[in-house]
Amino acid sequence: MSINAILIANRGEIAVRIIRACRLLGLRSIAVHSEADEGALWTRLADEARPIGPAPARDSYLSIENLIAAANAAGADAIHPGYGLLSESTEFAHAVEAAGLVFIGPSPQAIARMGDKVTARMAAQEAGVPVLPGSDGPVSDIGEALAAASRIGWPIAVKASFGGGGRGMRIAREEADLESAMAQASREAQAAFGRSEIYLERYLDRPRHVEVQILGDTHGHVVHLGDRDCSVQRRHQKLIEEAPAPALPEALRAQILAAAVDLASKEAYHGAGTVEFLVDHACEEFFFLEMNTRLQVEHGVTEMVTGIDIVCQQISIASGEPLAFSQADVRINGCAIQARIAAEDPWENFRPTPARLTGLELPLGPWLRLDFGVEAGDTIPPHYDSMFGKIQAWGATREDARTRLGAALGALQVSGPATTAPFLQQVIGQSEFAAMAHHTASLESDWQPRLLADRPDAAPASKHGIGPLATTSPAEPAAALSRVVRVPWGGSHGTIAIFRPASASDSSFQLTSVDSGQATLSGNAETGPQVLAPMDAAVAHVTASVGSTVARGETILVLEAMKMEVTIVAPHDGTVTEVCVAAGEAVRSGSLLAVVVAD
Q1: Same domain, residue pair 469 and 417
Q2: Residue 344 forms beta bridges with which residues?
């Protein structure tokens, strides 16, 4: 079928990316936007823009009816779903085809089988691809889950059956953790993907995350475009990706690539897809993790090392054209590494920081690729994912790419929201990352990037007489981070890191743990009994009630912002005298959530 006009059923940087592919192919692009995104960059770049509803994603970007109506009104021939949102929705793919439009992606049947992690596991087993032990299907109650967990073995990964990107995933290391992990994973999956089903799988603590990009056409041809490593993660969400996967034994690489192509071929898969694996380097084993039946956030690094435009290929395949190249034509040239730039504060447990971008200066230089969905003056709203851009660097060697990416992250200037950029610059400077010795738990369990020296708001503190962060001398034992706190200083705030000397006994300081599944924030000490919202957000769940007694650190309520749950806890022991919000309510940064009067 000839495609002349494409409606992009997405937002942000991926909408911009697809618009640029449309321009290359001479196709008309149609953007959509919610009320919160009116006037956003992708609506300005597209040939036409259509409103699709209110700010909440469920009423706009997740509304199949609104999207189909917009496509028909604009005279679109096809719909590109991008990634996330409805990109792996069988219902959406069926609705697009029923409306007489082309869905730029795999068939609804392939999405139903491979986009559902439970049936994808079954397909992998049928194809002879090794899988981790897991539940036979979705689990719906704690009794069923405990029975499955006893068979699988601890620790357990509780995972959303639909969707991806680390959303809807929690780890239960023992029986007491399982029920809470199930509730959190199910709630987050519902918010992110509109489906709450979850399943269980054995959790590997220190694997590498390796994935294979595949393309298949409707004529029976399937090729791979090499592999990627996505092992730098927090909360099971990728932060840094690279192609090809480093330090992978060539025999093992060949097995992984062959397994991905075999699986896609047996499923008669067409379109772009990614087959993901967990790799145990010590044993040189790999296990099927999932298949993403869509474009990946990290597709750009594969494009940089192969020279193949994956989005243009998606459109070509959807038009019915055969692949114009064979497996023998695919060549990997050099290395590329990507850093995701998100509106989050890594120094406050990755707290979402939706805000207006008062300034944005992008780095310049050869062999850099910048994919951003915003410009200076735009607003990053709290209703959607926190990622607003990506920086990718190519090099003839991995070290060239790593060095170039580090320089680019240092040159990026963002005013308004706190971002992950300075944190990621420190991460890629870690010796284990440079030596290609890292794994999926490295960032959260092994690495401790410097917290203050490169923090964007560290400089103002020095103006108030606070010197640079003291460090131990080479002869002294390394200090272990105890906690990071923000304290009032004049009319602003300063950030202080508290370290415990390695020689001190464990009882010398009370260490605070970092929950890998969600951010945890206490009430603001400046407001005394008042507990204030740390950001614009929606109330996901309220646990406290008026008159209840709470201990310091006990959960009062849970907020949801940028597809992330943030637990708000009591700032001290006391009694809850006011609860000022209800589940489903939108709150603004600084608004009163509850009052806890100290005992």
Answers
A1: no
A2: 352
Query: For residue 529, what are the contacts with CB-CB under 8 A and spacing of at least 6?
Result: 574, 577, 595, 596, 597, 598
Answer yes or no: are the C-beta atoms of 92 and 64 closer than 8 Å: yes
User: Which residues are 80's β-sheet partners?
Assistant: 8
**CATH assignment at residue 183:** 3.30.1490.20
Do you find a cis peptide bond into 155, omega within 30 degrees of 0?
yes
167 & 234 share domain? no
What digits encode the pLDDT tens for the residues 187-200? 877 776 677 888 88
Closest C-alpha among 428, 408, 481 to residue 232 = 428
Instruction: Measure the N-to-C terminal CA separation of the chain; round to a whole number of Å.
Output: 71
CA distances from 553 to 136, 199, 328, 596 (A): 37, 29, 58, 12
Residue 313 identity: Q
SS3 of 201, please? Answer: strand
Q: What residues make up the domain containing 56?
A: 5-104
* Structural contact between residues 243 and 335, judged by C-beta atoms closer than 8 angstroms: yes
Quick one: CA dihedral 289, 292, 297, 303, positive or negative?
positive
**Residues in a beta bridge with 566:** 519, 559
The answer to whether 391 and 341 are in contact (CB under 8 A) is yes
Q: Are 278 and 286 in contact (CB under 8 A)?
A: yes
How do beta strands 28-33 and 5-8 pair?
Answer: parallel
> pTM of the entire structure?
0.77
CA distance linking residue 478 with residue 501, whole number of Å: 7
Amino acid code (one letter) for 558: V
Q: Write out the two tokens for 399.
A: 């070290």
Which stretches of 307-397 are DSSP H helices? 310-318
Number of structural domains in the chain: 6
Is the same domain home to 435 and 464?
no
Query: Which DSSP string corresponds to 427-473?
Result: HTTSHHHHTT---TTIIIII----SSTT-TTHHHHHTTT--SPP---
Token pair recorded at residue 391: 């920086």
Q: pLDDT class for 565, splitting at 50, 70, 90?
A: confident
Question: What is the dihedral angle through the alpha carbons of 541, 87, 387, 407, rounded to the nearest 10 degrees?
Answer: 150
134 secondary structure, DSSP code: B
In a domain? residue 176: yes
Tally of residues, the chain? 599
User: SS3 for 243?
Assistant: strand
Provide the token pair at 220: 């029976």
Cis before 244 (ω within 30):
yes
Which range scores top for mean pLDDT: 54-58, 353-357, 367-371?
367-371
Distance CA 158, CA 47 (A): 42
DSSP code string of 2-34:
---EEEE---HHHHHHHHHHHHHHT-EEEEEE-
- Amino acid identity for residue 87 in this structure: S
pLDDT tens figures, 514-552: 333 344 454 444 457 889 888 788 888 898 899 889 988
